[in-house]
Each structure stands twice: as C-alpha cells, then as structure tokens.
Design a protein that fits this description.
Number of strands of chain A: 17
Structural class of chain A: alpha/beta
CATH superfamily of chain B: ACP-like
Largest interface: A-B, 19 and 14 residues
Strand content of chain B: under 5%
CATH class of chain B: Mainly Alpha
Number of domains of chain A: 3
Helix content of chain A: 40-55%
Shape of chain B: globular
Distance between the termini of chain A: 49 Å
Radius of gyration of chain A: 26 Å
Mean pLDDT of chain A: 93
Distance between the termini of chain B: 8 Å
Number of domains of chain B: 1
Low-confidence stretches of chain A: none
Order of helices and strands of chain B: HHHH
Largest sheet of chain A: 8 strands, mixed
Oligomer: heterodimer
CATH architecture of chain B: Orthogonal Bundle
CATH class of the largest domain in chain A: Alpha Beta
Strand content of chain A: 15-25%
Helix content of chain B: 55-70%
Mean pLDDT of chain B: 90
Largest sheet of chain B: none
Low-confidence stretches of chain B: none
CATH topology of chain B: Non-ribosomal Peptide Synthetase Peptidyl Carrier Protein, Chain A
Shape of chain A: globular
CATH topology of the largest domain in chain A: Rossmann fold
CATH superfamily of the largest domain in chain A: SGNH hydrolase
Radius of gyration of chain B: 11 Å
Number of helices of chain B: 4
C-alpha cells in the first residue's frame, strides 16, 4: 500500500491506523501467519499497532503476545504457561536506556564500572540463553540509545564513568553476543534515534505521561525499521533493483546531451551526487542485490554512459540492461520473467513520477518509491530497508555472478539442437547430502523465500531446520549445484518424515530455486531420497502438493517424477505415491553427484 | 478560529482515530461516551489533536483535562 511505503507520513499512519488495517486485511488472502511475542520494558501498545500495519503490508499477518507493562524479563525467566502456549515464531525484546537502572557514578573506580557493566550484561544474557533454550525462535533485541542529557558534558563519551561510554560498551557486548549466536538480531535503536533526532525522540513528556521510550511521532519510523528485520527473517526481502539511467544514475539526458556532457564524477557538485549514488549501488551489488537497467534510450547510448570514465558502475555490474523504447512496465515485467523472480522482489528506481506510476500500476507487486531529488536518493533507498541484511551468506555475495552465469547458459542453449546434449555440456556437479551445519542459514532462507517451486510452502526458521537435521525420524537433503559457468550454491531442499511401521516416507518439504529449473536437479534429489529410503527399509514415498497463489508450476510435479496420484481434495491439493522398486534406476543421467 | 470550527475539526479527528463516522463530540463528551476510548487510545488521540491544530498540550493540561469542552478551551487559548 502506497501509504506504508517509505518515506511515509507518520502522523497520517498514527491517525488512520484502524482504517488502514481494515483495508490491508481485506486486500488479500495469501498472508503468511506469524506469532510474535513483544516483551517490553516500556509501553508497547502503539509499537504493536504500527508494526502490525507494516507487516501486513509485507504479506505477514502477525498474531501478538504482549507482555504486561515492563515484564520483559520476568516473562522469560519465570514459568509462563501463557507465553509457552502461545508458541512464538519470533520474540522481540523492546528495552531502552530507561531500563538501565545501575549507571556508574563519577566516583566509581574503573573496576567498579566493569562490575556494573558485567551485571547489566548478565541480566540480558541469561534471558537470551533461556529463550534460545526454551523457545528456539529468532530473537530481536534493541540496543541502547543515548540518554538525552550529559552529566559530564562531552566527557560522557570519554570517561568510563560517563553514561554514553557505558552504553557504548554495553552495546558492544550485545553485538558480540549477536555475532556469536545465529537467530539473534539487534534492532539498532541507537541509530534510529540519532537519525530521528535524539531530543525529539526522547521527549520526556512521553515517558512520564505514558511510559513510552520514545515520542509518539517516532513510533512509525521505529516500527518500520523493526518490521524490516522481521520481514527479512521471514524471507520477504527484495532481491533486485531496476534502475533508470538519465537523471537517475547520472545527470542529464545522454541521447540529447552526448556522453561527454552527462553529469557524473568529481567535476561538478551534481556529478558528485550521482557518483556517490553509483558508489552506493555498487556496494549494494556487493552484498547480493542484483542490478538491472530499464531506460528509454538507444542501447549504444546506455552502454556509452555506463562506460563513462568517471562512472562507478560498469555494464558488467548489471544482470540485464533494457535500454530501448518499450514501455517501462513491459521492460520491468520482462526483467522479472527473464530472471525467474517474482515482480514483488523488484524495486524500480526512476526520477520520473509518471514512469514510477506506470510501472507500479501495470506490474503489480513492484515497489516504485518516491526517491525525491538526486541528493536524497541514497537516504530514501537506504532507510527503506528493502534489502535488510540478517545474515551475509557466501551465496548473497556471489548472487550477481550466479545470475550472470545463468544468462550465459541461456545463450549457450541456443547453440544446441538436443537438450540433453546441452545439459551434458554444462558439466554439472552436485553435492546432495543431509543438512550440514554450514548451510543451515541458507536452507532456512530458501524455505522462507521459495514460492514457485515449492510443493508444500512450509516455512521454517533456522532452529526448525537444525531440529530436523538432528532428528533420526527425518531424512533431510540439501542439493548444491555447480557447472562450468559457476557455482549456484544450495538450490534444493527436501525433508521427509519417516513412518517406519508403514515403511513410508512423507515428503513434508520439497523445494527448488527457480534459477536451476530444467537442469534435472529434481531427478538427482529424487535419486538421493530413494537411496536413503532403501537404506532404512522404506519402500514408499508419499508426496503432497498444497496449492498457493504462486506454486502452480509444480501442480503436476510428482506426476512427472513418476509418482501416482492417490488423492485429490476439494481445495485442489493432491497426494502422490511412489513405490521404490528394489532395483531402483537412477533418473538423473546428466549431473555428476559427489560421493558422500 | 471560532469554537464551532474547533469542534468541527475535533470531530474529524475523533472519527479518524476511532474509525467511526457516527461519532459527534460536544462539550461534555468524555472517554465514557466512546467505546474504544481507553487510556492507550487516549495517547493516540492527543497526538492526533496536536497535529491537527499545530500545537502541543503540556503535561499538566493532559493530566487535568476532563472532557472535550476543556480540550477545546485549551486549543482556543493556544492558537
């Protein structure tokens, strides 16, 4: 919904939240349901109210558990049947510097300060460990924002006895915990309060009147930032930028002004603004955001502009370059389909409001933010948090190369008459094994973001995945695929539940990344599952297909794999059966699978 | 701004905040008269009224306000 896209009107959202919630809830039916426990050290009512809007807008329908006022610690540490019964998918701990009770005093010795610091930290650490032990779900924890007054003035930051110094050290201990524990995320309210303006943020009126850790008007921005972490944890990040060129990546119109006259580089202040923006985009690419061009231009002019000697981005930084006279909506749709990703993974960046409008209305799902004027582009895109990082996997960093390699493969395909011959020419090598520790994050990520090639669309957190891996009652497999153009990383995940009395394996999850469609990887996965079944005396595999708005492509998947349909329900979900012959013949003949 | 205008604009704010087009406030309206008006919604209401009139209540005023009439009096004295 436009009203909830960054940059939004906070006061409008606060005032109209009831109406907006009603409209959002009625607008779609394909919400992912998530249970979120909000454990507060201050009032959380309006934080939940705003958070709910932003999550609904991301397709997540939250159900909330809200702790009694300031009971965050007690709720975790003492027996709490209500919270246990709630079974949270995520726990958010909303604490602030108002919850720090034991600050150092100016006369304390460094050792006494260290003791205080240790005490404060332990208070939180025991709670996090208890959560990890009992609830095994992702945790989001606020760090601490700075106090709004400074007893020691500028030395507050310097002296160990200063509150700012104390908070900085405590925050660093929080970060260390976060670096050492997967599934634990910091909500950086120190940054958000600074960006908002600490004096306004910390307005004591709201603390003393209502026990709010921040002013009311800051709640939407606060909740938006929090919703970005949550949507990223649940796999709802955007994946790619679709960028206009003229007056977006450089100043001026290259077709009219000529490549020598566009503004980019250190010569003019506008040129510097665009250079900084290109530098920002290049850094986004380096963390796995895929860049594309969508520009009304002659193709040669576009390439000339991207080869400008002062430019930062180069033609090879982009996956697809659409520079033509087509409608931008058509180019955007083509980019989504050629990359095999859904339009709702795309962010369209264009200085022209008319182009943004046509793309947003003609290609449902695409986000086309109002990016303001060139000097505001970075702030708007950055604070919007489309690509919020929750874990930086090797796959993320290599994603651009992988998609580029895909484009190369498609070119090569055109040179082959026979498809099997083409597959063989790719020299594919796969690694198909039970879930391994190094891939848990990637496997969880796939289970949350695969929509199209996903038979049951069950969403799992990393701790769920770790549980399956450790449980003898399950057969788990991840598949990693490499070929002569590059490494695709982990692209397929299968989880089967053993039913030994009936010699049956129930396939609870089968998914594959669309970037390896039609590569016979699914056959290699089936082979591995069949062999694992035979090793433990299982003779039958049962597959399930649950239809969603997005997984129509695998409706007949099990049929194509040689399963027999044994049940079809009214909601079009189906059940399939595959009897594994004693002399099972491998179905994959084109991928070399490494021996375990 | 006349008292009547203040009430017209207050009425709009109440309808937005409580998402209820049937609300009409007068001098003696209190939280007891509007179903959703609890202490938490009160925070939101105050913020929305402040935004509408471009002013801020002091803590003392928020604490002592008895009904919508008194709210209107404060608004008129401040704009």
């Amino acid at each position: 919904m436009k009203e909830l896209e960054y940059p939004f009107d906070s006061e409008y959202l606060l005032k109209k939240s009831k109406k907006i919630k009603r409209e959002l809830t009625e607008s779609r039916t394909d919400f992912v349901q998530k249970k979120i426990a909000v454990l507060g050290g201050s009032t959380t009512h309006d934080i939940i109210r705003m958070l709910e809007l932003f999550l609904l807008d991301q397709g997540i329908q939250p159900e909330f558990y809200e702790s009694e006022y300031a009971q965050y610690w007690q709720d975790v540490m003492f027996d709490n049947p209500e919270l246990a019964g709630f079974g949270p998918d995520l726990i958010y701990i909303h604490t602030s510097n108002r919850n720090l009770t034991n600050y150092p005093s100016p006369s304390d010795s460094p050792e006494q300060v260290d003791d205080l610091l240790g005490e404060q930290y332990e208070h939180f650490r025991v709670m996090w460990d208890k959560i990890a032990d009992q609830y095994r779900c992702p945790v989001i924890q606020n760090n601490f924002e700075y106090p709004f007054y400074r007893i020691l003035g500028n030395q507050e930051a310097v002296y160990l006895q200063g509150r700012i110094n104390f908070i900085n050290r405590l925050n660093e201990m929080f970060y260390q915990y976060a670096r050492g524990h997967g599934n634990f995320y910091i909500n950086d309210i120190n940054y958000i309060s600074a960006a908002y303006g600490l004096d306004k943020w910390a307005d004591p009126f709201y603390w003393h009147m209502y026990k709010y850790a921040m002013c009311m008007q800051a709640v939407p921005e606060f909740a938006y930032n929090l919703s970005n972490i949550i949507k990223a944890v649940f796999g709802k990040n955007k994946k790619a930028l679709v960028l206009d060129l003229d007056n977006t990546l450089w100043g001026g119109v290259i077709g009219d002004d000529g490549v020598e006259n566009i503004e980019i580089g250190q010569e003019t202040s506008m040129g510097q603004v665009f250079s900084e923006f290109q530098t920002y985009l290049k850094a986004q690419k380096d963390i796995g955001v895929m860049l594309n061009v969508n520009s009304k231009n002659e193709y040669d002019n576009a390439i000339a502009g991207l080869n400008h000697p002062e430019g930062i981005l180069r033609p090879e930084d982009f996956i697809l370059i659409k520079a033509n006279w087509e409608l931008k909506s058509r180019n955007t749709a083509a980019i989504a389909s050629e990359m095999n990703i859904l339009p709702d993974s795309l962010v369209f960046v264009d200085d022209n409001p008319a182009e943004r409008d046509i793309v947003a209305t003609q290609v449902p799902g695409v986000t086309a933010p109002d990016i303001g004027t060139p000097e505001q582009y970075i702030r708007v895109l950055d604070h919007a948090g489309y690509f919020e990082v929750v874990s930086l996997s090797e796959d993320d960093r290599k994603r651009n190369e992988m998609y580029k390699a895909n484009m190369e493969r498609q070119k090569q395909l055109q040179n082959f008459g026979d498809y099997r011959e083409y597959l063989l020419s790719l020299e594919m090598k796969a690694e198909i094994r039970p879930f391994a520790a190094v891939y848990m994050a990637r496997i969880a990520q796939l289970s949350n973001k695969s929509n199209q090639f996903n038979l049951t669309t069950r969403r799992y957190t990393q701790s769920d995945i770790e549980r399956f891996a450790a449980d003898d009652g399950y057969i788990t497999r991840y598949g990693k695929l490499e070929d002569k153009f590059g490494d695709n990383g982990v692209v397929s995940v299968v989880i089967g539940r053993k039913d030994l009395p009936n010699k049956t394996l129930h396939l609870e999850l089968w998914l594959m990344s669309c970037r390896v469609l039609k590569r016979d990887m699914e056959y290699a996965m089936l082979d591995s599952m069949a062999e694992a079944c035979q090793e433990c005396g299982i003779e039958t595999m049962t597959g399930y297909y649950y239809p969603t708005a997005k997984n129509g492509m695998v409706k007949e998947f099990y049929g194509a794999m040689g399963f027999e349909k044994i049940e079809e329900k009214e909601d079009e979900s189906t059940v399939w059966r595959f009897d594994i012959p004693a002399d099972y013949q491998r179905k994959n003949t084109v991928i070399k699978v490494a021996k375990q | 701004m006349s008292r009547e205008e203040v009430f017209t604009r207050l009425n709009e704010v109440f309808r937005d905040v409580f998402d209820d087009e049937s609300i009409t406030v007068n001098d003696s309206t209190t939280a007891d008269d509007i179903e959703d008006w609890d202490s938490l919604e009160h925070i939101n209401l105050i913020a929305a009224v402040e935004q509408e009139f471009g002013m801020k209540f002091t803590m003392g005023q928020v604490v002592s306000m008895k009904n919508v009439g008194e709210m209107a009096d404060i608004i008129i004295s401040r704009i």
